[in-house]
Design a protein that fits this description.
heterodimer; A: 163 residues; alpha+beta; Arc Repressor Mutant, subunit A; Glutaredoxin; four-stranded mixed beta sheet; 7 helices; 11% strand; B: 827 residues; Ubiquitin-like (UB roll); Rossmann fold; seven-stranded mixed beta sheet
Chain lengths: 163, 827
């Protein structure tokens, strides 16, 4: 399922590493750039490239919040649920996004645009509550601010490309 | 050595002993989940907290993480430590279901015991419990993840200890899940140990599931007789059925673990799931008769034939699954009655290899599996360990984890759960390879110090061994061997040349002369090969050598004692013809073998679970298996009989030695003539040292003094290269399906490996064949069809055919065959 071109690129990345395993997470992130999430087939092919068993790779994949083992929407909203954000209204943020944009918590909106997930501390405690959308962080969230950010993404598909 | 006080008891322990182990030596079991002696300490579960009152550190600490030190005063009962543990267990129980009444682990559950003993009797947590979806893990292991307390024992055992990579921890935090990437049978042939090692009921034994409670089981220490290693087991039986087999800790043999063949290959003793597969009753010409009638028939017929044709017309066959008692009885009767035999082996080459190996084993050089774990250089010569003696592979895995160099010299496409250098040398080249490896490790100074025979042997070793295909440099490996201190040579007796076992012994001896603590470990073909070799002499014949006498009509009667020539003798047609010429075929057995079907008189014998018996493993270790139960047709599967009877259905079986005594027309009871201890000592001289009165013999090693001397000059190895075009077809063993008695266990039938022929990929290319093709191989007596597996990591010019149930390899006329290329074709 991975294109030969992508595989070639990954092979090179792995070959440059001191030990192939250390590139496991990078390989998965790279694949997600192209496929949004890690399907079982992608896991098996990536594991083969890395010389790991699919289980060994899955141990890593399921450990990390930013590697997706189920299909996700175009924009994955990670709302921080660590202590500070939780005190400052993590649940309100989740509920608001869920009701206003029709995204079930832990699921994807019917239009395939948004996926809503919690995430552990992202270090934005001074600007709690915070969220991450496709590698971009937003703090001091209010319902209005959320509507603005998500509305823009929904309306214009306007988004800062990942750095 | 540090001295410390634990709960007011003083103990001195070796340096490096953990406090938890020091306490165990005093009989104090500190609660634990993650800690296991075989896996080591990680300090993850916090259950083994104790209070340090005096000494280098104070307060509540984890006893598995702290080395015992002088002056420590430890309390396991201090209120602070007790409270700590109580809270840990309460927290571990938060997500644990309250399903003990329907859980198979109930009654043998560490979590249950420690919850109760910590005093956490009432749950305070009112919330929802975390739940998981379970996976299918194959026919042996049931998965119930909701019960998991995240101790990580399973993944540490499975990945670190046993070296397999398809079961491990997934997810994070409270959601951690131990499972596979996808559902499917666990790849490890050691997966059954998960059942023993899990402190609760996440992994349970499927064959025994939902059948019986631990406290209803009859349990006794037993020994596995499926391969020569003699791993220690516990037999568990209920309602006349063996329900499960567990590992029994023996530090010198199997440690805490077992392979799946040993653990799950027992249902033959129950006659399979329907209890109908075992011959339970005595029979004359196929008709059920009483025990007494069958014994009288055998005794009178044997006496009659002896009287008419002389006792030499009677042959006694034994086997390498006989107990030591049975083997001794066979030996005694043959001697005293003048019968021919006992015959232990079918293949004369295998017999000679076993015998030369046992003769060369010296008590100084023989190592146990435990010692292999501490080897720093292991050479496996001509042995496919995972298939021939699986737990030996596990022992080498432990050496490998301690950075030992592992070299495997074997023509087959060997796979093992650790890193090793594979030299796919042809059988005739194994000695060359081993010899040059050893020679290269002997320095000039060392050579000077040798006596003349060692010097002569060393000089005659080949200096060079060309190994082009594997790309391995023997001289580099020799360099590593030179600096090794505890090298071990593991030598097989299956596909190697006849001179190889003795040659391996000489190599080990030479390494010993050069100042190393070198060891030698043989892999023999059956559970009691060692004792059959002790009971053999130069005159001992194999079945192949007896067969012509049957065909000529010189032999009229055959007494097959737990011996089935059809199992491992080729040329089925010839065998059938020969056996039909006999006047009398007396068969004593517990398996439904082909020979049993042809018996004139059949006597059911007891399995290892049904009698007290002794077995000597391949390193000469004497081990005793206790009777687990009386045995008989199990009551499982139907309501117990409503008719009151004064006998046990299927309870007619007797130990084979007892049956032999009775059919030999001895009128007196055996006990009035001699004891079993005397019987054994009279037949096997080395047992005299044990004492005639000592029976059962429960421990110790019996290795005769090496009278052979040593250092047989190596013969010039045959030149490499093939003259005729074709393939040398050799038989090889495979796990689960190749060995009596486990291959008769219906629990294993679903995991028999697919019938596969192994061929070098270069040879396959030349023949226009490729991986996965179905091929037809024309043997002398007909064609067999099976799948082809090709590999680059094997010797060219060879074919390997598994001697397993379901493959009709008996269409071969000899124990090996020459196959011309046109006789293999794709279908």
């Amino acid at each position: 399922m991975l294109s030969e071109e992508l595989k070639q690129e990954l092979r090179k990345m792995i070959a440059d590493a001191e030990s192939s395993r250390e590139k496991a997470v990078d390989v998965m992130l790279d694949i997600q750039e192209h496929h949004l999430w890690m399907s079982d087939e992608a896991m098996e092919e990536a594991a083969e490239l890395l010389g790991m068993s699919p289980l060994e790779l899955d141990e890593l994949a399921t450990f990390y919040d930013f590697i997706y083992r189920s299909p996700v929407g175009k924009y994955v909203i990670h709302v921080c649920d660590s202590a500070m954000c939780w005190l400052e209204g993590h649940q309100r943020v989740m509920d608001h996004i869920s009701t206003s944009f029709n995204v079930p918590i832990g699921g994807t909106s019917p239009d395939g645009l948004f996926t809503l997930l919690p995430v552990c501390c992202i270090g934005y405690c001074d600007r709690a509550p915070a969220m991450v959308i496709n590698r971009r962080v937003y703090g001091k969230l209010t319902p209005e601010k959320i509507d603005r950010i998500l509305g823009r993404l929904a309306r214009d598909n306007e988004f800062h490309p990942p750095e | 050595m540090p001295r410390l006080v634990i709960d007011d008891l003083e103990i001195e322990v070796p340096k490096g002993t953990k406090v938890i182990d020091a306490a165990e030596r005093l009989g104090i079991m500190i609660p634990r989940f993650c800690y296991h002696e075989a896996l080591g300490a990680v300090g993850a579960c916090r259950m083994c907290a104790v209070k340090f009152i005096e000494g280098p550190l104070k307060g509540v600490q984890m006893s598995c993480m702290i080395d015992a030190q002088d002056g420590m005063v430890v309390s396991t009962t201090d209120q602070e430590a007790v409270d700590f543990r109580k809270r840990v267990i309460e927290w571990l129980m938060i997500n644990h279901p309250h399903d003990c009444p329907v859980c198979d682990e109930g009654g043998q559950c560490l979590l249950q015991d420690e919850t109760v003993s910590s005093g956490h009797g009432r749950r305070r947590y009112p919330g929802r419990k975390r739940t998981y979806r379970n996976q299918y893990l194959g026919p042996f292991i049931a998965h119930e993840m909701n019960r998991c307390i995240h101790c990580y024992r399973c993944s540490r055992y499975y990945q670190e200890f046993s070296g397999y990579r398809d079961l491990g921890p997934l997810q994070i935090g409270n959601r951690v899940y131990f499972g596979r990437f996808k559902e499917g049978r666990l790849e490890s042939p050691f997966s059954g140990n998960l059942v023993d090692i899990c402190p609760t009921g996440v992994y349970t034994d499927i064959p025994a599931r939902f059948k019986v409670r631990r406290w209803d089981l009859q349990r006794a220490p037993s020994v596995c007789i499926n391969c020569p290693l003699g791993c220690n087991t516990i037999g568990n039986s209920h309602y006349r059925a063996v329900m499960r087999v567990e590992a029994r800790m023996n530090p010198y043999v199997n440690g805490y673990f077992l392979c799946d063949e040993g653990r799950f290959g027992f249902s033959y003793t129950n006659g399979g799931a329907d209890h109908a597969q075992r011959p339970w009753n005595s029979r004359i010409s196929g008709a059920d008769v009483t025990v007494e009638a069958a014994l009288a028939e055998s005794a009178s017929k044997i006496a009659e034939i002896s009287a008419i044709y002389g006792p030499g017309a009677v042959v006694a066959l034994g086997s390498t699954r006989n107990s030591l008692e049975t083997q001794s009885m066979l030996s005694r009767l043959c001697r005293r009655k003048g019968w021919q035999g006992p015959v232990w082996f079918n293949d004369p080459a295998i017999y000679r290899k076993v015998r030369s190996g046992v003769e060369r084993l010296d008590s100084g050089i023989a190592v146990s599996m435990r010692e292999i774990e501490f080897a720093d250089f292991v050479i496996v010569a001509g042995a496919d360990l995972l298939n021939e003696a699986p737990m030996a592979a596990m022992a080498i895995r432990q050496a490998s984890r301690k950075n030992a160099t592992i070299i495997v010299v074997d023509p087959r496409p060997i796979s093992l759960p650790f890193e090793f250098r594979h030299i796919p040398a042809a059988p005739a080249q194994i000695e060359r390879c081993l010899g040059s490896l050893v020679k290269g490790s002997i320095s000039k100074d060392e050579l000077k110090g040798f006596d003349s025979s060692a010097k002569g042997f060393c000089k005659a070793l080949p200096a060079k061994f060309e190994e082009k295909e594997s790309g391995i440099s023997i001289s580099e490996l020799s360099g590593q061997l030179m600096s090794a201190k505890r090298p071990v040579i593991v030598c097989g007796t299956g596909i190697v040349c006849e001179s190889t076992p003795a040659f391996a012994a000489d190599c080990a001896q030479l390494l010993r002369e050069s100042g190393k603590k070198a060891g030698l470990f043989y892999i023999l073909p059956g559970a009691s090969s060692f004792s059959s070799a002790l009971l053999s002499g130069p005159e001992t014949k194999t079945f192949s050598e007896i067969l012509p006498q049957i065909e000529e009509g010189l032999i009229k009667a055959l007494i097959a004692t737990e011996s089935d020539p059809f199992w491992d003798f080729p040329d089925r047609e010839r065998l059938d013809r020969a056996l039909s010429m006999l006047d009398l075929l007396v068969v004593i057995d517990y398996l439904p073998t082909e020979t049993v079907k042809r018996a004139t008189v059949f006597h059911p014998s007891s399995t290892v679970f049904e009698m007290n018996s002794t077995f000597v493993n391949q390193e000469g270790r004497v081990q005793h298996a206790e009777r687990v139960h009386v045995g008989g047709v199990p009551i499982w599967g139907a309501h117990p009989p409503r008719i009151i009877r004064n006998f046990v259905p299927g309870g007619d079986h007797q130990p084979a030695w007892e049956l032999l005594w009775k059919i030999s027309a001895e009128t007196s009871m055996l006990e009035s003539v001699l004891t079993l201890g005397e019987l054994i000592a009279a037949e096997i001289p080395v047992f005299e040292a044990v004492g005639h009165s000592k029976y059962p013999i429960t421990e110790g090693r019996i290795i005769p003094e090496n009278s052979e001397g040593s250092f047989v000059k190596p013969k010039a190895s045959p030149a490499k290269g093939q003259t005729a075009k074709g393939f040398n077809l050799l038989l090889t063993d495979t796990i689960f399906a190749s060995r009596e008695p486990s291959a008769y266990a219906d629990t294993l039938a679903s995991v028999f490996p697919e019938a596969t022929l192994f061929m070098h990929s270069g040879d396959a290319n030349g023949a226009g064949l490729s991986e996965g093709d179905m091929v037809s191989v024309e043997l002398e007596l007909g064609a067999i069809q099976l799948k082809l597996s090709v590999s680059q990591r094997m010797a060219r010019g060879f074919l390997f055919l598994p001697r397993q149930r379901g493959i009709h390899w008996q269409k071969m006329k000899e124990f090996s065959a020459w196959i011309a290329p046109e006789r293999i074709r794709k279908i």
